[in-house]
Amino acid sequence: MSQSEKENQGSGEGKTQDMAIFSPPVVRSGAGALNRALFTKTVNLAAAAVNDNRLISKYRKELEHSKELLRQDRLSPIVNHPDKALADQGKKCLLLSPNVKAPEPETWGAALKEGVQKKELSVIPYELQLNYDYWTYHDIITSILPEELHDDIPSGFNTAGHVAHMNLRERYIPYKKVIAEVILDKTTNIRTVINKVDNVGAESEFRTFQYEVLAGPDDMQVQVTENACSFEFDYSKVYWNSKLEAEHRRLINMFEPGEVVCDVMAGIGPFAVPAGKKGVFVWANDMNPESNKYMQVAINRNKVSQYVRPICEDGRTFIHHAADSVLEAHKNGEHVLIAPKPPSRAKKAPKPEPKRVDIPPTISHFVMNLPATAIEFLGCYRGVYAGHEDLFSAESGRKLPLVHVHCFSFKADDETPLNDICERITKYLGFPVKPGNPDVEGEVAVHDVRDVAPAKRMFCASFRIPREVAFAERV
Ligand SMILES: C[S@@+](CC[C@H](N)C(=O)[O-])C[C@H]1O[C@@H](n2cnc3c(N)ncnc32)[C@H](O)[C@@H]1O
Question: Of 246, 394, 408, 437, which one has the fewest beta carbons inside 10 Å?
Fold first, then answer.
């Protein structure tokens, strides 16, 4: 081996650092209480003590370039000198790669050797102390769980404000408390960890769930911000899913200021409140009285009471009631007045009049986010505008409402889910539909929203209510 080859090998160039030394100790404490003190470790390294602090940045760059500097996630290579007296004088060290050994100059690379030769550096042993705070959730849990559980370490959870909501698989249940404690320690802004309690697949009518608190206080009163609106609610009493923010935004972006939107299953208002904020009139219904209560809270918090009306009834009856009530509001001349921007003080222009926006006579969009069953409500559109063909005459320029109905279907790359969804819409609407352009009567646009299970996805189907359905006689 030539001298340069020896030097190369010694300096760690071309060699991967042995990073296993930074793994936490294996603490197979079982399902018992989490003992954070067991997660301490001393890693023996070498460090380049820098004689003059003004040279730190120069040597940091050089040693980084020659791959002699320690590169390890969440560890700064610049540390205080291990000698307390020198540290008190402000002396610093640069931590070196584990391949570099202080007593073995043949492991030092050219940059290090040169620094030592110039008496600007000295290479010293350094005992790096690592503890529980250093390691990630994954590191700690891997260290605790037995190896047969390493293949699918629980990592995902929903959050609602300070609450992390887990849905642990059966085989991780014995470790639920330890897992929750570590999540609590390692996730900023999480104060409570809960686990969904299996209720043998049965979902509650209001899409709430049974849970047990695994770590932190049993405090389910949460605050969240979504689409620039703030919500405060009891997460145990109403439905909330932070993973739907993009879907909420997608539909909100379709609504125009001054239009009317009827949200049939509005929850606490993640469609309604931001839509109201952009000047859309919203009739926001939910059958859960708790949702209705917290929607009112959100309306007040976000100052959208001029635009958003909370209603609490069965969505099936709401559909006709909403069409009638919007028309009534229009006939009564209900409107909002939008205060103009104050004129600049320099101009002595007369104060501009507020802008009046009337509630239009008809609904532009219905939203139905209750994916498990909403399609079954579609029969309720029959007769929604019975006797009101005039409202949608060619001269009026008005179109029948678009319905956006959420649903579940298969996960497949072909047309299977589209055809499945269209078949079910056909059945419940009582009118044949096929995949296509929602502006064409009898055609449906299907948007793929998100994965919900290995073989199941959530979709949103959008279509205009067919004339035959809208103008049918009410029974
Ligand atoms: C999946 S959540 C969606 C809530 C909200 N739209 C969202 O995106 O977060 C479905 C909502 O439907 C409400 N709900 C269930 N059955 C209903 C019915 N028959 N009529 C009206 N609302 C209903 C539940 O209370 C729940 O808030």
Answer: 394
Give me ligand 1 centre to Cα 445, in Å.
22
| Centroid of ligand 1 to alpha carbon of 198 (angstroms) | 21
Q: Please tell me if the CB atom of residue 127 comes closer than 6 angstroms to any atom of ligand 1.
A: no
Residue nearest to atom 6 of ligand 1 (CA): 266
Enumerate the CATH 3.30.70 domain ranges in the chain, comma separated: 3-29+39-130
Backbone angle region of 74, left / alpha / beta, with phi > 0 → left and psi within -120 to 50 → alpha? left
- Do 290 and 298 form a contact (C-beta atoms < 8 A)? no
Longest distance between any two alpha carbons in the chain, whole Å: 97
Coil, helix or strand for 242? helix
DSSP letter string over 172-219? Answer: GGGGHHHHHHHHHHHSTT--EEEEEPP-TTPPPTTS---EEEEES---
Tokens read off for 132: 């529980």
- At 328, which amino acid appears? E
List pLDDT tens digits, range 295-325. Answer: 999 999 999 999 999 999 999 999 999 999 9
ipTM above 0.85, yes or no: yes
Assigned CATH for 3-29+39-130: 3.30.70
Looking at domain 154-219, its CATH class is: alpha beta
The SS3 assignment for 170 reads helix
203 Cβ closer than 6 Å to some ligand 1 atom: no
CB-CB contact of 253 with 273 (8 Å): no
Out of 26-30, 113-117, 251-255, least confident range: 26-30
Q: What is the mean pLDDT of residues 445-468?
A: 96
End-to-end CA separation in angstroms for the chain: 95
Q: Which two tokens stand for residue 196?
A: 């969904």
Candidates 239, 186, 472, 231; CA nearest to 369 is 239
Class of domain 239-470: alpha beta
Q: In the chain, which residues fall in CATH 3.30.300.110?
A: 154-219
